[in-house]
Amino acid sequence: ILGAVILGFGIWILADKTSFIAVLQMSSPSLKTGAHILIGVGALTMLMGFLGCLGAVNEIRCLLGLYFTCLMLILLAQVAAALVIYFQKETLKVELSNIVQDLIKNYDPLKEGERRNLQEAWDYVQTQIACCGWTGAEDWTTNEILTNKSYTEYPCSCSNRSKDLEKGSGFCNLDDPVNGTVAFPNWPVHEQGCMDGVEEWLKDNLGVILGVCTGVAVIELLGMILSISLCKNIHSEDYTKVPKS
Question: pLDDT over 70 for what percent of the chain?
Fold first, then answer.
């Protein structure tokens, strides 16, 4: 079950196109690599779980030993990954900031293909987190299209009424309707930057994240302890069955 959850999470990262994960995985090759690693670890965990059950039911010591070894390696890999993320969090933050700033600078509603999917994912992030830009709405002043505008315009997803708009992406004019753009004179943009919104979300859900990680580690440790205990028990039973001379 644990392997299936990890496998499903890896597939979800690759398949998701409408959230902050989509922005990351479309912009950062490292996240795609991480997703493939999760899929591999999940599949390996499911295989090890099957071999562990087979070894326990049929009392095959080599399968139990293999199960214990692989589970220990997976647990060590998870601890190593957590340490790398913890000690490299500032580097990851800078990398993420560069990704988003580049996305904002080159945002163009007329683009098609994967770039369009990436932009729609960012619009979804701004709408759901109620934020605008990475550090704030002023980030959009670097956009190559908006720098040539003579009136105030932001992405529609920056508005605090964006959830009420049928138009969830593209630019909206905050002054007057020009060239068919949607005007909302008294609808200011979100003051909060998405960086603060993401950090706030992580802080609010930190307990859940730590709880899940701790639960996974406890289950793996329990599996290791039970498998090695059963392996020793099988050895003892086999020894007692040896006829006395």
Answer: 77
